[in-house]
Design brief:
The protein is α+β, with helices and mostly antiparallel strands. It has 8 helices and 7 strands; from the N terminus they run αααββββαβαβαβαα. The strands form 2 sheets. It has a 5-stranded mixed beta sheet. Strands 1-4 form a two-stranded antiparallel ribbon. The structure holds zinc ion. Zinc ion binds next to loops.
Length: 193
């Protein structure tokens, strides 16, 4: 099991009340026809947007199988959607994961499930990147792992100077990727960046 074993329930009643207050706060009326069902919709949607809270992401990576050879395994362009904990607005993009196996590898779809579980929480991109890296490191125990996230943040894109979509890129790595810069270069080449 991972470290997140407490299942947190979404309290829909609290969210509904908060959405009503929020609407009033921005000068709207909860009872306006177009808004009458909005608190319900938002409360219901939160169950899906934050379904990764309290969920154990390690369970997906545990299904490993042994593999010969020691070449780098790369899973790239894993789409993810998350919510920025500073502004409660979405940020979304792609995750690229590379690791050098030490005898075992995980199923390809399992990395995507792991990313999804960590993304469906309130997050900041740096922590999301680290949590994915640490999860792969902890469960698959490879010689090294590298995780790169590229994302557009609505809290940046919708505010201030709007010069197209600015991407934020974050990187986290361990083991052989820390020691050998040529492996990092190989990873960049494999993900085409
Ligand atoms: Zn933000």
């Amino acid at each position: 099991m991972g470290k997140d074993t407490i299942i947190r329930e979404i309290d829909e009643e609290k969210i509904k009340k908060a959405v009503c207050l929020f609407l009033e706060g921005i000068g709207e009326e909860c009872e306006r026809e177009g808004l009458i069902e909005t608190p319900d919709r938002v409360a219901h949607m939160c169950g899906e947007l934050f379904s990764g809270m309290g969920k154990d992401a390690d369970q997906y990576l545990m299904k490993t199988f042994s593999a010969g050879g020691g070449g780098m395994v790369v899973e790239k362009d894993i789409r993810f959607y998350s919510v920025c904990e500073h502004h409660l607005l979405p940020f979304f993009g792609y995750a690229h994961i590379g690791y050098v196996p030490c005898g075992k590898v995980t199923g390809l779809s399992k990395l995507a499930r792991c990313v999804d579980t960590y993304a469906r929480r309130l997050q900041i991109q740096e922590n999301l990147t680290n949590e994915i890296m640490e999860g792969v490191d902890r469960v698959i125990k490879p010689k090294g792992v590298i995780v790169m996230l590229e994302a557009e943040h609505m809290c940046m894109s919708m505010r201030g100077v709007k010069e197209g979509s600015v991407k934020t890129v974050t990187l986290a790595k361990s083991g052989c990727f820390d020691k050998d810069p040529s492996l990092v270069q190989e990873f960049y080449q494999m993900v085409g960046r």
